[in-house]
Amino acid sequence: MQKKPLRFFLHYFLSEGRRKEVKTLNGYSYLTLEQRREIERMYAEGERVVDIAARLKRSAAIYEELKRGYTGEFDGYARPKYSADLAQATVQENFRRRGNRRGANC
Predict the structure, then answer these.
(1) What residues does 74 pair with on adjacent strands?
(2) How many angstroms separate the CA atoms of 100 and 103, rounded?
(3) pTM here?
(4) Within 1-106, where are the H helices?
(5) Is 82 left (phi over 0), alpha (psi -120 to 50) or beta?
(6) 74: which DSSP letter?
(7) What is the distance between the alpha carbons of residues 90 and 31, in angstroms, rounded to a whole number?
(8) N or C of the chain: less Cβ packing under 10 Å?
(9) Please, are residues 95 and 10 in contact by the beta-carbon 8 Å criterion?
(10) H or E element: which one contains 105?
């Protein structure tokens, strides 16, 4: 069986149409764009981060996710604003860069 390139694998599993949590071969799991939008919605409504993590059945790594999607502004609760689209773009860029150690010129 021919192995598919990592780029195809990541593109397929990080695409918008993917609805489930993604488990890779190495056991790590990544948030989907839909899950990130759910985080964005709950966070904008003022929910606590620990409650968001519990609802999504995730660890407190949600804090790292909020840093990844930080827009540079603050919301009505004086907390840093979070953008699911920015976080998704950052993750995809990190995956793209990670695949090519010489540089991100793909």
Answers:
(1) 80
(2) 6
(3) 0.67
(4) 6-14, 33-44, 49-55, 62-68, 84-99
(5) beta
(6) E
(7) 12
(8) N
(9) yes
(10) none
- What is the amino acid identity at position 29? S
Cα–Cα distances in Å, from 85 out to 2, 16, 36? 33, 11, 8
| Interval 51-99: pLDDT, tens | 999 999 888 789 999 999 999 999 888 999 999 999 999 999 988 888 7
Number of Cβ within a 10 Å radius of residue 20: 10
Q: Which long-range contacts (CB under 8 A, 24 or more apart) does 13-22 make?
A: 14/88, 14/91, 14/92, 14/95
Residue-averaged pLDDT of the chain = 78
Backbone angles phi, psi at 23, to 5 degrees: -110, 130
The phi and psi torsions of 70 (rounded to 5 degrees) equal -65, 130
Residue 45 exposure: Cα atoms within 13 Å on the Cβ side: 9
| Concatenated DSSP letters of 43-64 | HHTT--HHHHHHHTT--TTHHH
Of residues 85, 90, 84, 91, the one with CA closest to residue 42: 84
